[in-house]
Amino acid sequence: MTSTQGLRVVPTLTPPRAFDAACRMVVDYLARVVPLDAWAVTRVTDGHQTMLVTADSGYGLAPGLSTPWSSSMCQYMVAGSAPRIVPDTREVPDLERIASEAAAQGMEVGTYVGTPIVTGDGALFGTVIGMNRAPVDPALVAQEPLLDLLSSLLSSVLEADTAAVDSARALERAVSDAETDALTGLLNRRGWERWLAREDERFRRFGDPASVVVLDLDGLKTVNDTEGHDAGDRHLRHCAAVLRSTIRGTDPLARLGGDEFALVAQVGVDDAHHLVERLREALDAAGVPCSIGAAAFTVAGGFPGACAEADALMYTDKRARRRGGRAVPGPRPEPPSLPTA
């Protein structure tokens, strides 16, 4: 028997398909080894920098908090105009300016640390970031190799996790008959709810942008009452075809029952707003007008929160359309915000 006595067992960084677990381990490790007031892994998308995982003892940072990328210190680090480790932000003009703006809002940033996390094709995914209220010893710059090593490891885990998720999604798209609406060929309510439950954790893990769009076909009852249910079925199939032709093939589209449809657009808030306008124009032009509501997925609320908000906005739109007007199809909210990062 081989003895393991005296051997040091080193745990692996993370099991496959666990980018969020790797992020948690990295920020916790940095908080122990380089004890600043806050460490975080962030996602940069749709013009914002959003906290995915945090280890915070001085700022109150939490997953889901967001700041515009244009007011983030990380933009200068990514562009190469600021160092990755800045023990005293007063020594870098761009960072000093942002620190001054943050201080005016009660958030002191005396030290900044940041390094990018990139995708497999070299695009920016997000950052590892550290902050401290007061400037620290300049010797902190000696930690740059460690910082770069950890961000490279996260990039590798991200690539593996993303590939695994893509493969799983491709497999899952071959849905069973039990999850398909027989009339339209779209997902039925069961398939829709399974997709949301399955994808909620994945979207939270990566901080991917997404918006839920809920639609209710106007006038179906009138068609059924005046032309018969066969005409009503054709009306529903026509609506489904228009929706399918207007969205991307990878975005899930469902008939939830009756005259209600729903989809998830894997885009940010602004692009989702434009999509809703395209949907409305296409549906109106095809003679299948719908009341529409849209809401953004957030790390905090997940798909349950987005679905509830989109559904409420759809009914607001329907009431406005009955009065002869049109409600805004969905809010264009900023995510929960922090002064700067």
Automatic annotation (TrEMBL):
What Pfam families does the database record attribute to this sequence?
A: GGDEF
Report the residue ranges that make up the GGDEF domain in this protein. Answer: 208-333
Highest taxon above the source species: Bacteria
Residue ranges of the region described as Disordered: 320-341
The residue ranges flagged as biased composition, category Pro residues, are 330-341
List the NCBIfam families hit by this protein, alphabetically: GGDEF
Protein name per UniProt: GGDEF domain-containing protein
Its source organism is Actinomycetospora straminea
